[in-house]
Amino acid sequence: MEKGSINILKYNGEYEVFSFQKLEDSLLKTGASLQKIEKIIAALKPHLYDGIKSKEVYKKAYQLLKKTNKIYASKYSLKRAIFDLGPTGYPFEKLIGALLREKGFQTQVGVILPGACVTHEIDVLATKEGVSYAIECKFHSSTNTISNVKVPLYINSRFLDIQQEWNKNPDNKSFLKQGWLITNTRFSEDAINYGKCIGLTLMSWDYPKNKGIKDHISHYGLYPITALTLLTKREKEILIDNDIILTKEIIENKHLLEKLGFSEKKVTKISEQALQLCSGD
């Protein structure tokens, strides 16, 4: 640890020198002005101490940001919001399917496909311009979980089995070109190198640079309902249990909330926040 510095305890158990610049950069991405961010950092400073947990720093910064602007807070909490989609991986798969549709793909979630040797369940099958892609989504509930090289090795072997059977079937109108592996956490360096070597597309929270999950969600405004600050934990669980995963679904179908017992007043407030978050206002 560096003398005279504030060291924070990260999720993985390692210490890191706290960087105010890093925090400022994260807050700027929410859309908050530099002036507001400076006030938040000034209010945060008295609560910092050597050895503080990174999740405590995040929690305090989030609470201060929420008091300033709830939409900024929703954007700042995006990573946590994706974790909150768990414990099953289906909501994450649906989120990935929605992102790909925004990019012009036709998608199916949870598809059973025969392979040359065995049958496989594909999380997302995406097709565009006569070319199809078999996509595996690895959802993790902990930020510490990293997908090592064993994961793409396994996924690629499944893809090759499916590809062999798919492309010889005359009934399939598209060519199955490639496998993809998407996770909400991170890949090891070996996993990334292996993916590059064999042509397996990898996407994680922040990989590829500027083209990771967080970048796609921000660009297309496809935020999960778990990012909405007006919803309680139980209300988020109710929506997910009823297959409502995206804020966009609330905007397009307000009656869904009414059917689930939300008051008219709350439906209006939630819809307004969802619209602001998706539009980037």
Structure report:
- The protein is globular and about 65 Å long.
- It has 13 helices and 9 strands.
- It folds into 3 domains: 7-76; 90-220, Trna Endonuclease, Chain: A, domain 1; 223-279, 5' to 3' exonuclease, C-terminal subdomain (DNA polymerase, domain 1).
- The model has no long low-confidence stretch (mean pLDDT 92).
- It has 281 residues and is α/β, with parallel strands linked by helices.
- It has helices spanning 20-28, 34-44, 54-68, 70-76, 78-83, 90-102, 150-166, 189-198, 213-220, 233-241, 247-252, 254-259, 264-279; strands at 7-9, 15-17, 106-114, 119-128, 131-138, 146-147, 175-183, 186-187, 201-203.
- A 5-stranded mixed sheet has the order 3-4-5-7-9, sandwiched between helices.
Return the string of H and E elements: EEHHHHHHEEEEHEEHEHHHHH
Helix content: 40-55%
Strand content: 15-25%
Shape: globular
Number of strands: 9
- Number of discrete helical segments: 13
Question: What's the story with the biggest beta sheet?
Answer: 5 strands, mixed
